[in-house]
Each structure stands twice: as C-alpha cells, then as structure tokens.
Design brief:
633 residues, alpha/beta, Aminopeptidase, 3 domains, 8-stranded mixed β-sheet, 19 helices, amino-acid biosynthesis, transferase, EC 2.3.1.1, mitochondrion
C-alpha cells in the first residue's frame, strides 16, 4: 500500500510546533544567563564601590599616604634619554620610534603601572573560627580588599572549638584534621567569590625541633623558635611562590614531628615559626634556587608588615575601660602589666585574649619596627583597610577618655586593638637622671632650632616637675612648676601651674605611635591622676595614686599642631598680643566633683559646669608670659 505524500505546508507547521518548546527553552536559558551576568556585574560594581568607600572612610593624612606608598607603591626607575645616531643631544629630546633598528624600546611607565600597580608585601593572618558562611564571606571580602592594595595575606586557619593539640585517639584526631582541612577549603572558596586568587597549602611547611637539640633536618643556620617549631626553606618556598604570584596561601596548623608524621598543633605556634622564618633573609644558594624555579620568587621580600588576628571576641579588654578594648598597646611598656591586671571574668568573654597578646609580642619581635599587629572582630573587617593605610588604631588613645567612651559610644566591644613593639617609658623627677646631651639632640631635631642650653637647663634645675622619656630619647615631655612665688592662688587652683614646657618626638619616630604613648603617659601623671584608668605602668610613674592637676601649655598661633592640641585640651584662649594660644586640660578628678548632670529636652543628659573659675586663665597668661625663650636668636 502506497501512502500519499504529506503536503509540505502541514509538515512545516508540525515541525514548527515541535520546535516551539525547544525555542522557548533556549530563549529562557538565554534570558537566565543574561540575568545572571547582569547580577554578577551588579555585585562586582557594588563590591568595588564598597572597596572605594572603605578607603575613603580611613581618612588618611598626607603622612599616612606617604607611609603607605613607601611600602606598596612600585619603585620608579628613571627613564634614560637616548641621543639620536650617536650624536650628543643639544636640544629637546625627540622620541624615537620603537621600530627603529638598534635601539631598545623603553617600557611605557603607564603600561607598567597598570600591569603591576602595587608592590606586594606579606602579612600573617590568623582566622580564628568557627565562623558562619556569612561571617566568613565578610572576612574574605576584607582579605580580598587587602590583596588589591598590595598586602598578600598568609593565612593560618584556627578553630576555637577544637583543642590546641591533637588527641591521642587516632579516629578523633583524623576527624579534627578533616574539620581543619574543610576550613582551609572554605576560606579558599570565599576568597574566590571575591575575585581573590588563593592557594590552599595542604602540605606541611612547619617542623618540630628534635628534642635532642641536634642540627635540624641537616640544614645549617635554622634555629627553632621558642615553642620548638621551625620552618625549613623548602616549606617556606610554598609561601614565597604564592606571594610572588599574588596568590593568598591558606595553611593548615600542622607540623612534622621527628618521625616525619604530620601532627596538628596550635596555629599560634605555626604563626610564630612563620614570623621567624619569613623575617630571615635566605642564604644566597637557596635564594638562587628559588629564583631559578620561579622568575619572580627570588625577588620577593617575605618580611611580614602586619599580623592580623580575626576572631569573634574583638580586641584585648582594658583594665582602665571596664572591659572595653584597648585602642593601642605599647608592648615594651604594657605587656607585663596587662597580663597582671587581666580580670578573671574576662576568661569567659575573651578566652584567647592573653594567648593572642603573647602571639603578637612574639611575632612583632621578628618583624620590622614599623610593623604592627591588629586584633579585630569579624564584625569590624573594614578596620583592616584603615589599619593598612594609616597603621594607626581606630581612635587615638590620647584623646580624652570621656570623648572616647561616653560620646556616641565610639569604643565598643568590637573595636580592634592595635599592638606595636613600642618603646619603654620612664618618668624622671630630677635633673640628675636626665641625659642632657640626648635631650638637647631630641629637642633641636624636633623643633629644628638651636637650644640655649645654659639658660634652659638652669631654669629646669629650679623649676623642673618631671620629664617623661620614651625609649632612648625618641620622645620627651618636660613639665615645670610655674608661679611658685604666688602668695594667693586663684579660685579653685590649689598650687603652682603644671606647665608643659616642651613636647617633642624625634622625626624618626613620628607616625609610629610614639606621640600617643607619650601623651597618654603625660595625662596619667597630670590631669588624669587619681582615676582608675590612669594606672600608668611606666617606670618611675605615680601608678595612678595622687590628685590630678590642671595641665597648661602654650603654642604659637600659627603652629600646625594646634589642631591636634585642640582635640586633646579642655579649652584654649588667644593671648592679647595674638602670638600665642594657651591650652589647658582640667584635672579630671576635680572636674568630676564639679560636673552635674541635667536632663534637657528629648531625655538627653548634658553635663554643665555651674561655676566658672574666674581669674584662672588670666593668671596662667601672666605667669607664662614671664618665661623666656629656650632658643638662641
């Protein structure tokens, strides 16, 4: 039986009906892909805007910007001028085409800056979990921002819900190791979501020192750090390669024991070993071997510039702020005192605070003097950007205590703590303790003037109250007693004027926190004396015992430092001749007895001083006007 042929028109109509679902699916997939791409582009745009906003919120000063650029900006090499055809160039230089035979084209500086816009420097980072996905995403976004600005994080993962050492039970040890390995994979995953190149380092880079004390692994020049862990050059090569290629290495907290078995250890021990190994310049032989294996790895300076501890607790609680975090810590002066004054109840709210304090103290001992450590909550990841640019705490510790704590809640539990090596602080109360040569050098370099030594030191022998010295005269605050011959003091002024005669910081220590450490010590010895938060641990200090005194000083009207003085003073007046501004800080203990709280509209409490201290400022101006200049003409 022969079937009649199917007409062409109905056949085409049927095929169209069959293809219609296929076409609609294809169109739907296309729309879905375009919608996904538009969402991805929008997310990237939002993230870039957030990145720019984080930089702007840091509000870096000119000095901060210069400091950042000195570490992360690429070195500029002068471009040589090529004379034409071997003749001396006597007129304007004519640019030669890159295709001219025999002349090597010079690199375009614009193209070079676009291809390599930053000089990569490493930072040691401890991610102290466990964190939820949302928290980890926020942390890794901050790590990605730091990477874009040139700081390549060398991350060691940690979990507070696991013991610091591996258990004896083999199955439990394996389970815990898998948990830590999963954390490494999570960190790499979330870094990739924020366009940050990351490299999981699942091999062991650290080793345990031989208990017998024999040479480590047959390698010369390798010494274990205090905790018995060291990093070999071969293990360090994983980190060097990653930093050279701009990738973030994410490491396991493990080490090989003397039997070449991998053991999970405390992440703090790994970080201490890395700080020691990365801060040591490699031998020429190992450096050349690294350079041959990677064209750029041999040129990378692995010395870490920052230590970041990201946790759920926030900064280290302060004995002076009722458990709120320290803003900045001078380890050379405060390390022992913070350990002694750590309150028992803080072991529940901040169980790892002291171990992180020890970690920062140990790591910074190997790092450059300008390096710093930041202990920060995962809720304050934006603070890492500000710290990278400014290398300063979130708020200056030398600002008035009431302004920091009571005004708008500037300090919260999540405020980060900045730690520096710092310098020891001493309070000298007699001229016999003062090194006049070093003090003269400090004052002349700081003020850029020549000191009239004979007249200046003669006056100090008669009127000296105390001198605060930071380090080996890296900074000094000189206070004298003025108006001692006055028979009747003004109202509410019990004695002579505590006058800040000189406040100086050596140029080499400007921007490294010395100025804040010096002012905090000055406050603790004068207008903050007698309060709980004035328990100054410095050598020779009054340790907070005594009655506070008004601190008075003067500054030239055109001094650019006056803005900084204004933020730390209770008030100021301009002298009648207009040449000086007289600043003062009221004694906080006495002032606290005079303040009364009154409730105004809206339920807001405002502190008002009921009685003005009439005649006090006029007396200050008269007495300070009698002081002759300390400088030669």
């Amino acid at each position: 039986m022969v079937r009649p042929p199917i007409p062409a028109a109905p056949l085409r109509a049927g095929l169209a009906r069959i293809d219609r679902p296929r076409a609609s699916v294809s169109a739907g997939l296309t729309q879905l892909r375009l919608r996904h791409e538009s969402q991805t582009l929008q997310e990237i745009a939002n993230e870039d805007n957030d990145f720019i906003l984080s930089i702007l919120q840091a509000s870096p000063s000119v000095r901060d910007s210069r400091s950042y650029l000195s570490s992360f900006a690429p070195a500029r090499t002068p471009q040589p001028i090529v004379p034409s055809s071997g003749q001396e160039s006597t007129g304007p230089t004519i640019e030669t085409s890159a295709s001219t035979p025999g002349i090597k084209p010079e690199p375009n500086p614009l193209v070079t800056s676009l291809l390599n816009p930053i000089h990569r420097r490493p930072a040691l980072v401890k991610i102290q979990g466990p964190f939820t996905d949302a928290q980890m995403d926020s942390i890794c976004r901050g790590m990605a921002y730091l990477q874009r600005m040139g700081l390549v994080s060398v991350i060691v993962v940690d979990r507070d819900d696991l013991p610091s050492t591996e258990p004896a039970d083999r199955y439990e040890a394996q389970r815990q190791r898998m948990m830590v390995r999963h954390e490494v994979e999570r960190v790499v995953h979330f870094l990739a979501r924020h366009r940050a190149s990351a490299r999981p380092v699942l091999s062991t880079v650290a080793r345990m020192a031989d208990p017998s004390g024999e040479e480590l692994g047959g390698q010369k020049g390798i010494k274990p750090v205090e905790n018995g862990i060291f990093v070999e050059e071969e293990g360090l090569d994983h980190v060097r390669r990653a930093v050279a290629e701009g990738e973030i290495p994410v490491l396991l907290p493990v080490a090989l024991d003397s039997g070449c078995r991998s053991r999970r250890i405390s992440s703090n021990r790994v970080l201490l070993a890395l700080a020691s190994a990365m801060s040591t310049r490699p031998d020429p032989a190992s450096a050349s071997a690294s350079a041959s294996s990677s064209s750029t790895a041999g040129d990378i300076d692995l010395t870490p510039l920052r230590l970041l501890v990201i946790n759920r607790e926030g900064g280290i609680p302060s004995y002076a702020r009722s458990g709120l975090p320290h803003l900045s810590i001078n380890l050379a002066s405060e390390y022992s005192y913070i350990n002694r004054t750590f309150q028992p109840q803080w072991t529940d709210t901040h169980p790892t605070a002291l171990s992180n304090l020890r970690l920062a103290n140990g790591c910074l001992a190997h790092m450059p003097k300008e390096a710093s450590a930041l202990i920060v909550s995962h809720r304050s990841s934006a603070a890492m950007i500000a710290n990278l640019i400014t290398n300063k705490p979130a708020h200056s510790a030398s600002l008035p205590h009431a302004l920091l704590v009571e005004s708008e809640g500037r300090i919260t539990r999540d405020t980060p703590t900045l730690l520096r090596k710092g310098l020891p602080v001493r309070v000298l109360r007699s001229m016999e303790e003062v090194d006049q040569d070093k003090l003269t050098g400090l004052l002349e370099k700081s003020f850029r003037r020549v000191l009239d030594q004979k007249a200046f030191y003669e006056r100090l022998r008669n009127d000296l109250d105390f001198v605060i010295v930071v380090g080996d005269y890296g900074g000094a605050a000189i206070c004298t007693l003025e108006g001692k011959t006055t028979s009747i003091y003004p109202h509410n002024h019990p004695g002579p004027i505590c006058y800040l005669d000189k406040f100086a910081v050596h140029p080499s220590h400007q921007g490294d926190g010395t100025v804040d450490f010096l002012w905090v010590a000055l406050r603790d010895e004068t207008y903050g004396l007698g309060l709980l938060d004035a328990s100054n641990p410095s050598i020779g200090s009054l340790r907070g015992v005594g009655k506070g005194r008004d601190l008075v000083w003067r500054s030239r009207s055109d001094n650019p430092v006056n803005k900084w003085y204004f933020e730390r003073s209770s008030g100021f007046v301009r002298t009648k001749d207009g040449k000086w501004k007289v600043f003062w800080c009221d004694a906080e203990q006495r002032l606290g007895e005079l303040w009364k709280e009154r409730e105004f509209g809206g339920g807001r409490l405002v502190k008002v001083l009921e009685k003005e201290e009439v005649g006090r400022v006029d007396w200050w101006e008269r007495e300070l006007g009698k002081i002759s200049s300390a400088w030669t003409a």
